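User: Sequence in, structure out. Go.
Assistant: Echoing your sequence, followed by the structure tokens.
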Amino acid sequence: MIEPSKRPDSSRRHEAIDVSDFVYAATGARVRRLTMPDGSHWFPAVDVCTELGYTTPKKALLDHVPEEHRENLETVTGSHGLGIPAGREWRRDLNVISLQGLILLVQACTKAACAPFKQWAAEVIETVQREGSYTLEEAEVQPADPGAPIAYAMPEQVAEAIVRLEAHNLRVDEDLATAQRESLAVQRELLVTQQATLATQQAALTAQEAMATAMQRIADRLDILALGRPAPPSDTSAAAPTTESVLAEWRQRLSVTEDVWTVAVVIAPVLVDKGELREPLESIAARTGLSVRRVNECLRLLRRHACIRSRGGAEDGAPVYVLNR
């Protein structure tokens, strides 16, 4: 530190070493700080203890920091007529320590990164004991403004500690960037794999749909071949079929439920009068009171017993049936 005789007065306060660099060299981290109007600095105890490796901040304060160098935030700010700072988790009951309290915690810490600072502090004490004072060397470049305070060179041990910390942080940043790039590459590979899997699943689904369509066509073809047995030669001299004769013939062939016979009674007149049935299943369902699905099942049963046969579909998609005679 500067000798008391050379310290500027309070109206021209100047720190020989920037407090942020000083704390960075001591703790190895950039911790939060509040600077009061009188120039005193206060630090959250939990921040300092965390960076120095103390697992129980409360015990660390009781063991190493006297009461005059630890306080709660509301008392410190209130003594200067200030309010609690906003943001960054500043709380009224937050324990804070002075710069001297921070140095005491550093001196009691066993963290390897604190060793250079502790060695410098020991050198300062040894120099004061031997010579009666410790004076920083003046910086090679001084402020040009008239009346500006003297600039001092940072102690070699402190400067080296900061350089090592910055180099370490750069390595950490590079390692983090490398890890992020590798993670991004893995995510991209995973995305490509997922897209390939999705494409394979879509292709399999398309193949299944195509197979189902083909099987349905085969089933329909077999059904047509099975039901489309050649009708007995028509007797041109025979009388034209009537609804009554058709129903009578069907009654002899069928031993069916009431639903099938209900559908038969509805479609027989249409087949006799028009020669074919092009009525949508929904219309037949409305006339019989049955569901569309049940009407379709009844028509299939009539086809199976060779009462009717399929003849394709109409323009509107409705199936076309004719008498199987």
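User: And one key feature?
Assistant: The beta strands are 34-35, 41-44, 70-72, 95-98, 308-313, 319-323.
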